[in-house]
Amino acid sequence: MKGQVLLSHGMESGPQANKVSALAAVAEARGWRSSRPDFRDLDATRDVRRLESRIERLLASVEPGQPLVLAGSSLGAFCSARASLSVPCRGVFLIAPPLGIPGFPLSLDLPAVRAEIVHAWGDELIPAADVVAFASRRRLPLHLLDDNHRLEAHVDVIAALFDRFLGSCE
Fold it and tell me: What Pfam families has UniProt attached to this entry (predicted)?
């Protein structure tokens, strides 16, 4: 086993969602163990104060002493990035990350580790220009796809990008 890939689903999603399932399959094919915590109980309230509990649950899923890669979609990307500030990891793979959450005091941030972003030109929730500016300030690889926030038409493309990213973390 090469380590752990910790996958975080989005707000209106779950651990069996298409994107996190595709990333889990990539991780397992490469010899990593994937974990997908379930945040649906916390997300059901839509209470922004529960974000800290979401991040704490994510951190509680980390296997100590194992190489770690964090990946997530939408709110899961935000929480993965925030969690990466508290635990050593080899990389962070973000899909459609919000740069901030209204009512939550912290914004998207990352430590100095390998990171990559996939976003949609037509994201109706998070403007692509804002994500381009964030990636530009940090010189992060950014893949912009012709899709909407859910990126449903590009799950295979995202899986291929994650495969390459995960290979760079080995």
Answer: Abhydrolase_6
